[in-house]
């Protein structure tokens, strides 16, 4: 594992286990904002308006960057966020601390520190607008009664983790979402989009962030 600097002055991690980085090297924050906050969180608002509470599910907590940006955005969004995130291979506390320290003096530092320090499997109300539950488990084992409005699907790509982009995974994504829900992901693979359509999603290919032609937004309605 090593920490890498990306083009927008934010940081990502290179995983030795998966031989790939957690984010785009063109900009970790830029990618997360574009794919998950804009197309996911604000995408939901565009399609369905703002609910009293927006329920977000993230596949892959990783560095905590998507959770951190969602927390930061919760002040502007105008509704409460209930955020669930799962992680099968949590970073060691030493490594999470080293990643967090890269943002020394920036607003991300304190928030990432708080997010990484939270105990697993319990809800934590971080502000009056933001509650988070981190669950240490495999995507296929994650079970919960409630449904979600927004799904950030942020696994490693299909060439690295083919199972997480196949039929069984897509069916699970569909089940996790409420009747009106939105899935977003950086992945624009044709086979994945065909599976989403076959499952019943309306699929939109949106322009990607710097360095990526397209991303995928899938609407369940
Ligand atoms: C592309 S990284 C993104 C992480 C995160 N969203 C971030 O901003 O750092 C993919 C993440 O999914 C996690 N992961 C991989 N396979 C998983 C699985 N089967 N179940 C749960 N998490 C998984 C990895 O450990 C990694 O943290």
Structural features, described:
With 221 residues, this protein is of the alpha/beta class. The chain has a single domain, classed as Rossmann fold, CATH 3.40.50. 33% of the residues lie in helices and 29% in strands. It contains six helices and eleven strands. The termini are far apart.
SSE inventory with pairings:
Elements: E1 2-5, E2 11-15, E3 20-21, H1 28-48, E4 53-59, H2 65-77, E5 80-86, H3 93-101, H4 107-117, E6 123-127, E7 130-135, E8 148-153, H5 167-176, E9 177-185, H6 190-199, E10 202-207, E11 214-220
Parallel strand pairs: 4-5, 4-8, 5-7, 8-9
Antiparallel strand pairs: 1-2, 2-3, 6-7, 9-11, 10-11
Helix pairs in contact: 1-2, 2-4, 3-4, 5-6
The structure holds S-adenosylmethionine (SAM).
S-adenosylmethionine is lined by residues 22, 32, 60-63, 65-66, 86-89, 138-139, 154-156, 161.
For the structure shown, list the relevant keywords.
globular, Rossmann fold, 11 strands, 221 residues, binds S-adenosylmethionine, 33% helix, alpha/beta, three-stranded antiparallel beta sheet
